[in-house]
Amino acid sequence: MADFLTSTHRAKWIFTPQQLVEKYRDASQRAIQTLEKCGATLMEVDSDGTMSYPEPQNSVKDNAEKHSRSKPLSIEEEQSIKVFYENKLQEVCKNFHFPHKIQATALIYFKRFYLHWSVMEHQPKHIMLTCIYAACKIEENHVSAEELGKGISQDHQMILNNEMIVYQSLEFDLIVYAPYRSLEGFMDDMEDFCNASEDQLQMLKRLQDTARLEIDKMMLTDAPLLFPPAQLALAALRSSVALHQVIDFDSYLSSLFSRQNSTHTMSELIEALNTIDSLVMKYKFPSDKELKHINRKLKSCWGQSSHDEGKKREKKSKHKSKKSSSEAHNAPPPA
Amino acid sequence: MSIAAPGQLNVNESPSWGSRSVDCFEKLEQIGEGTYGQVYMAKEIKTGEIVALKKIRMDNEREGFPITAIREIKILKKLHHENVIKLKEIVTSPGPEKDEQGRPDGNKYKGGIYMVFEYMDHDLTGLADRPGMRFTVPQIKCYMRQLLTGLHYCHVNQVLHRDIKGSNLLIDNEGNLKLADFGLARSFSNDHNANLTNRVITLWYRPPELLLGTTKYGPAVDMWSVGCIFAELLHGKPIFPGKDEPEQLNKIFELCGAPDEVNWPGVSKTPWYNQFKPTRPMKRRLREVFRHFDRHALELLERMLTLDPAQRITAKDALDAEYFWTDPLPCDPKSLPKYESSHEFQTKKKRQQQRQNEEMAKRQKMQHPQQHTRLPPIQQPGQHAQMRSGPNQNLHGSQPQVAAGPSHHYGKPRGPSGGPGRYPPSGNPGGGYNHPNRGGQGGGGYGSGPYPPQGRGAPYGSSGMPGGGPRGGGGSGYGVGAPTYPQQGGPYGGSGTGRGSNMMGGNRNQQYGWQQ
After folding, report:
1. Could you say which of A286, B1, B192, B209 is the most buried, measured as most Cβ atoms within 10 Å of its Cβ?
2. A246 to chain B nearest CA, in Å?
3. B5 touches chain A (CB under 8 A)
4. Measured between alpha carbons, how far is B186 from B516 in angstroms, rounded to an integer?
5. Which fold has domain B137-325?
6. B22-119: what fold?
7. Nearest one of B50, B54, B183, B59 to B111, comparing CA atoms
8. Matching SMART domains, A to Z (chain B) (predicted)?
């Protein structure tokens, strides 16, 4: 963990709940202002990281009626959209059989990106794919943009167009620490702690498996932005122990404390673990109906009328894997 | 609340997040050029601090942001050590860039990304190649120890550098040495189970296991390069200047003996062993060839240039070697002489211009024979043949030529009156990044990327010029006139021509990008 101690992850990307609220609010307010001013919120980005807001409408009067219909998303609605795409992200990673580490890195990138931006400004589908692409690059598990795009029938140029803005939004802090690795460390430690016999090793293996699933859930909440990976891993381990009822977790914790010079007190740590648990408990996946409603609002914010959508769909069905015309339009010439 | 996108923000103010604009810096001059991008010396406007800006080219990248840049950023953000170059920040250029004449940059993309590094005055090769330069034993020990300390730190943090060579070792005027150019570096796991590309490390510094096609390797590859540099410092010129892979291996075998299952268990299983194994028996001649070296130096070198990577000395053990703990001890970096501060850009530029003109006149008279033997030929056919003839190189290249001119005191130990003009010790104040002897290397160290070999070392760029060349005896050999090192600085005097070619060539991103 010495690595983590000197990392940008620890120094810059662990926040207080209050800070998160402020960041979400700032991004949302900026998008709302753009909506008022320009009638749409979606930004155009280029592969070199340049971007621009939609042009303010000149013929405001003509469009006034139409624009007045575009209502911004509430912060809660934004959250729902992000939850939806974070799930999608995990799904895509699973379908590609990427290692856990990639999925976790991509998820953390996605979360960090939307600390700065509203989903009204950058399409989460694009950002999600770009985050996966970037995570593959950073974790030295290369998948070409084309391959990734093909796997989900999307134009890969969109990934390349968004790559730079993603790195910039991440402030080029590309190394992130996922709790899975910490969990492995704790498991090794636990083996020593309980002087594991063959039977117990089997038991520990099961413990680790459920703890992993627990981490998967945590990764979909704000917890990775609020707590260091080791605490997330420990919380997952605690839940897992509670499920299997095999180890006295409290005495393990005390033994941890007795061996390490912790900057926290035991009660502080337990409080943190409790908060993490409650974040997982509170996690809620939006219903189809909610999503449909939010999506409609979102598309209107992006300036995509239902008419445009229809046209797009028509095109797509004609030549499935080809670039959709609107995307091809924004793309730089092929290098 | 402003709703300007970061790209539209007032460029001189740093946004609350994201990257600052490159406009926070005033570009002073270009100090390197390569495929990776240009390197500039620049001044931060707010603080006046001098930095090096390395531009990351974004065009011709089918896979977006270059993986080499990603690796370098990722790794340098993780490494914090006094012997590793510090990446200060990353800045972006928001708008269309113009070159000095105000024309739009050839780069069709509107913006750009720059890595901001601490500025270093020299690189090891540049420094060593300065006319009249002769390192002392404590100085060599001091540099070697810093190199090993920095490398040990990398290896402990599971980073392989994979391009250790003199031009990637930057030196400041406090005598500090820092590893730079992590564009080929990558993390490794201790079990060496991952397959890594064997097309790394500049040919002359590439270890035998890579030349034999191994794809599972570890920190020992860097240690071979260190051995090459160590020997080069003592010997006065590169010890394995191969022109292609077969010749490189042959040169290694000639000095270190042929590998066999006795001295290198498993060597016959390396992919290209049968193809490259020597046809005649070859004995290890290292001790014989370098018998004039100090005993402890030779001992250490033996262990660095060990064929079998498993038996090769580690950075940690090398630091414990007798060599560093016997008299004369390594000196304190701060005690090292300060070579020309390179911060007077404007005056220098003018002076260079002036000298360049003088040079032109001289050249026309002299018809100097072209030095070529040390120039490694093109290896990668795909490289674009860009000649180093742009105005920027000339600016840099001109200085040493003049200072090393006829009035130079060849072989005279470094001293206050070594050369004409304002730079007494030598004639290569520009040293540092764009040393002409490394020709195409361009902005060494910051990794502006290698130049194709034919561009390297403008024929007159050697520091020996015009007194240099075959007759001149050159002013720049490490050992010239030095009683300690009987081996002279090579037949061409200037020890520098075409040193350290990075055979990666111009297309390294594309070629090596996704091999790991």
Report:
1. B209
2. 33
3. yes
4. 8
5. Transferase(Phosphotransferase); domain 1 (1.10.510)
6. Phosphorylase Kinase; domain 1 (3.30.200)
7. B59
8. S_TKc
Please list the residues that pair with B29 across neighbouring strands: B41
Phi first, then psi: what are they for A279, rounded to 5°?
Answer: -60, -40
Residue A257, class by beta-carbon neighbours within 10 Å (0-12 exposed, 13-18 middle, 19+ buried)? middle
Per the structure, the complete domain to which residue A39 belongs is given by 16-169
Q: How far is the alpha carbon of A34 from chain B, nearest alpha carbon, in Å?
A: 7
**Domains contained in chain A, number:** 2
Gap between the Cα atoms of B230 and B92, Å rounded: 38
How big is the A-B interface in CB pairs under 8 Å? Answer: 99
B213 touches chain A (CB under 8 A): no
- Of B123, B129, B163, B181, which is the active-site residue? B163
pLDDT in tens, chain A (335 residues): 348 888 899 999 999 999 999 999 999 998 888 888 887 788 877 776 777 777 766 544 455 555 456 788 899 999 999 999 999 999 999 999 999 899 999 999 999 999 999 999 999 999 999 999 999 999 888 889 988 988 888 888 889 989 989 999 999 999 999 999 999 999 998 888 887 678 888 888 999 999 999 999 999 999 999 999 999 999 999 999 998 888 888 888 888 888 877 777 888 999 999 999 999 999 989 999 999 999 998 888 888 765 544 444 444 444 444 444 444 344 333 33
Residue B317 known to be catalytic: no
Based on the fold, state whether residues A145 and A237 are members of the same structural domain.
Answer: no
Does residue A121 sit in the same domain as residue A239? no
Reported ipTM: the value is 0.79
Residue among B372, B414, B421 nearest B399 (CA): B421
Condensed to tens digits (0 to 9), the pLDDT of residues B43-53 reads 999 999 999 99
The rounded distance, in Å, linking the Cα atoms of A50 and A164 is: 8
Cβ proximity of A131 and A137 under 8 Å: no
Boundary-marking domain end, from A282, A297, A321: A282
DSSP letter string over B151-168?
HHHHHHTTEE-----GGG
B249 with B384: CB under 8 angstroms? no
- CB of B135 closer than 8 Å to CB of B128: yes
| Range(s) within chain B of domains with CATH label 1.10.510.10 | 137-325
Which of A1, A25, A136, A140 is most worth mutating to test chain B (most B CB atoms within 10 A of its CB)?
A140
Record the pTM. Answer: 0.72
Residue B215: pLDDT band (50, 70, 90) is very high
A73, part of any domain = yes
Task: Give the pLDDT band (50/70/90) at residue B30.
Answer: confident
Interface test with A, best of B2, B14, B60, B63 (most A CBs within 10 A): B63
Distance from CA of B502 to the nearest CA of A (A): 23
Of B201-210, B238-247, B428-437, the one with minimum mean pLDDT is: B428-437
Number of helices (H), then strands (E), belonging to chain B: the values are 14, 11
Pair (A111, A227) in one structural domain? no
Structural contact between residues A311 and A109, judged by C-beta atoms closer than 8 angstroms: no
The token pair that represents B41 in the structure block: 């010396």
Q: Which residues pair with B41 in a beta bridge?
A: B29, B52
CA distance B166 to B155: 19
What pLDDT is attached to residue A320? Answer: 43
A-proximal residues of B, 223-242, CB under 8 Å: none
Predicted pLDDT of residue A257: 84
Q: CA A109, CA A126: separation in Å to the nearest integer?
A: 13
Amino acid of residue B74: K
Q: Is A141 part of the contact surface with chain B (CB cutoff 8 Å)? A: no
3-state SS assignment for residue B141: helix
- Whether B90 and chain A come into contact, CB under 8 Å, resolves to yes
Are residues B202 and B502 in contact, defined by beta-carbon separation less than 8 angstroms?
A: yes
| Three-state DSSP state, B363 | helix
Is the same domain home to A273 and A248? yes
